[in-house]
Design a protein that fits this description.
Blueprint (H helix, E strand, L loop, with lengths): L2 H22 L5 H24 L7
Amino acid sequence: MQPVGALPQCKGLMEIVAATTPHHRGMVSTFAFVSRMLPTAISAVLTGPMFRLSGGGRAT
């Protein structure tokens, strides 16, 4: 994997950590937690395929 393709996945991981901590402490409802996790998980899963579709960082 190219380094640039890994960056959005790291961002998604940080969002998961940032949302999980308040949820475990009871500061965020389950609905709010799931609302935050669903787009995060989708973007993390789609990062690799979208990066490859865009040319995978190869110089043209």
